[in-house]
């Protein structure tokens, strides 16, 4: 099934590539993005911890090189190195091992689907464990040196860890979107949803509002408890620093959350635009595990139904004619009809019995298809429609169900053009054409459970009789004088009048007309 164009970013971002790229390239892309994003999240956390410890949170100076040198230069660097190995290298390797089904390009099991969609949370849990261990370890060591440093160290590491975990989740979810798309493609997202838009909103609130507000409250509480250690200048610097951190990282978090929300919506809007342009084969990549993924999946289900309806509509139009199909779809069709002034022509293949007996069935069918292709093409070109095929014959109607200003002229012109084209394009056969016009009843005939659109009246019978008569006439085309007189002068000049005959089954005479040589 065709996806959206590459320029439309099927997965919401060009960084994520295309849904049709090779498994090997997909694995490299996911691993590189995961590594970069996890490192970036931890660097952001380190910057926040450094800012909080140095200028924001009041308390003892835990950066004092004389007092805390072995903590800052031995314990922390060693732990950061180990955490990098565990959190980034081991974490991404473990994630790719769980996504082996996507790399092998096979359909995932139910367990693999759930594991893939929960992978951002699994990676975030690793970060939670690492930062919790860091909080306990460093707070304990600094507390043994100076017990008064415990609140300061605990808050700064806790705040930094919260930021890291929030960014890790959002960035990992973004990097793993290609795998999530494959997982959601194999199952209904309504049954395997892991998180929701509400969860993302709460996460954004925790980082953008909760942590900064908690920091300001702790600073205020500290200023009440130990006013002698908190002067106005220091308090102002702490508030400004915390406010700056909130503005900068809160903006990026809001940007990430907004992008994660709007990307699937933009994806659906692009799909809707394609459908409006007439592209019914559009199919969206469902890559979001929240309610927005249900929106994408719902669009695909809707598009499938639209394609099915269009296919039925096209097939319906091929069987009964586009005009009849449009009329039936625009209003509830009912049995019965109405009187209309119409023109009809009846065309019949001459010598069809001999052709069928002297040629293989496949050749006969091929010949009939070439014959009817010319007939249908010219009837459509002149505004009529083929009411029915009858073996080697066809009945065309002009003026019903859609009205035509010059229905007589259109029928006559179509008959002349068909005769000329058949001599050039299908010389193996010849056809006789009869053209008539008049008042007839046009409508649905049959039963409530099965009916067809047709016309009933004298013009139809007259056209059939003229067709029989035309088989022995020069040019094999005959029309009634009434039909020629009902056409515009330009078309009427292409016809000449001849004998008057009484057609079989009719009491009144019909003056014949044939094309001017």
Summed over residues and divided by their number, the pLDDT gives a mean of: 78
* Termini Cα gap: 54 Å
Instruction: Output the helix-strand order.
Output: HHHHHHHHHHHEHHEEHEEHEHHEE
Content-based structural category: alpha+beta
Global shape: rod-shaped
Count of beta strands: 8
Describe the structure.
- Strand 2 and strand 3 form a beta hairpin.
- Strands 1, 2, 3, 4, 5, 6, 7 and 8 form an eight-stranded mixed β-sheet that branches.
- The chain is of the alpha+beta class and 517 residues long.
- The longest helix is centred in the middle third of the chain and has 45 residues.
- The chain starts with 22 loop residues before the first helix and ends with a strand.
- It is 62% helix and 13% strand.
- Helix 1 packs antiparallel against helix 6 and helix 6 runs parallel beside helix 9.
Task: Give a brief rundown of this model.
With 517 residues, this protein is an alpha+beta fold. It is built from 17 helices and eight strands. Strands 1, 2, 3, 4, 5, 6, 7 and 8 form an eight-stranded mixed sheet that branches.
Keywords:
17 helices; 517 residues; rod-shaped; disordered N terminus; alpha+beta
Give the helix/strand layout:
Blueprint: H1 23-56, H2 69-98, H3 100-103, H4 110-117, H5 119-145, H6 150-175, H7 177-185, H8 197-225, H9 232-276, H10 291-320, H11 322-330, E1 336-350, H12 352-358, H13 361-381, E2 385-390, E3 393-398, H14 407-425, E4 430-447, E5 450-456, H15 458-470, E6 477-480, H16 481-486, H17 489-492, E7 495-501, E8 510-515
């Amino acid at each position: 099934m065709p996806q959206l164009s590459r320029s439309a970013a099927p997965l919401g971002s060009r960084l994520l590539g295309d849904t049709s790229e090779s498994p090997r390239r997909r694995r490299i892309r996911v691993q590189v993005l995961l590594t970069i994003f996890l490192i970036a999240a931890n660097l952001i956390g380190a910057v926040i911890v450094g800012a909080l410890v140095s200028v924001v949170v009041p308390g003892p100076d835990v950066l004092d090189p004389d007092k805390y040198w072995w903590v800052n230069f031995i314990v922390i660097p060693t732990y950061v190195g180990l955490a990098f190995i565990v959190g980034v290298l081991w974490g991404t390797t473990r994630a790719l091992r769980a996504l082996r089904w996507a790399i092998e390009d096979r359909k995932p099991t139910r367990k693999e689907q759930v594991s893939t969609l929960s992978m951002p949370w699994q990676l975030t849990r690793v970060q939670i464990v690492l930062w919790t261990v860091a909080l306990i370890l460093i707070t304990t060591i600094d507390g043994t040196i100076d017990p008064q440093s415990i609140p300061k160290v605990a808050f700064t590491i806790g705040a930094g860890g919260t930021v890291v975990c929030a960014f890790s989740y959002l960035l990992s979810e973004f990097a793993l979107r290609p795998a999530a798309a494959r997982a959601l493609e194999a199952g209904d997202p309504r049954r395997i949803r892991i998180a929701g838009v509400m969860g993302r909103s709460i996460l954004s609130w925790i980082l953008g509002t909760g942590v900064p507000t908690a920091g300001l409250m702790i600073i205020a509480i500290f200023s009440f408890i130990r006013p002698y250690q908190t002067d106005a200048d220091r308090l102002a610097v702490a508030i400004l620093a915390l406010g700056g951190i909130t503005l900068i990282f809160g903006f990026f978090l809001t940007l990430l959350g907004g992008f994660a929300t709007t990307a699937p919506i933009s994806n659906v809007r692009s799909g809707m635009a394609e459908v409006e342009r007439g592209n019914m084969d559009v199919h969206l990549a469902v890559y979001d595990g929240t309610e927005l993924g249900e929106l994408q999946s719902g669009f695909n289900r809707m598009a499938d139904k639209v394609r099915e309806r269009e296919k039925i509509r096209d097939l319906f139009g091929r069987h009964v004619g586009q005009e009849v199909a449009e009329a039936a779809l625009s209003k509830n069709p009912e049995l019965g009809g109405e009187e209309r002034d119409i023109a009809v022509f009846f065309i019949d293949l001459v010598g069809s019995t001999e052709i069928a007996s002297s040629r293989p069935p496949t050749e006969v069918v091929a010949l009939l298809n070439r014959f009817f292709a010319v007939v249908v093409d010219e009837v459509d070109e002149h505004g009529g429609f083929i009411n029915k095929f009858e073996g080697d014959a066809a009945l065309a109607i002009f003026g019903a169900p859609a009205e035509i200003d010059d229905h007589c002229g259109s029928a006559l012109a179509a008959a002349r053009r068909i005769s000329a084209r058949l001599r050039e394009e299908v010389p193996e056969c010849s056809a006789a054409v009869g053209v008539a016009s008049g008042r007839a009843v046009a409508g649905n005939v049959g039963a409530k459970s099965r009916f067809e659109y047709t016309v009933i009246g004298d013009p139809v019978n007259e056209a059939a009789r003229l067709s029989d008569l035309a088989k022995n006439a020069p040019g094999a085309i005959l029309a009634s004088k009434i039909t020629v007189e009902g056409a515009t002068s330009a078309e009427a000049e292409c016809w000449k009048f001849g004998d008057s005959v009484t057609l079989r089954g009719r009491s009144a005479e019909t003056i014949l007309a044939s094309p001017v040589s």
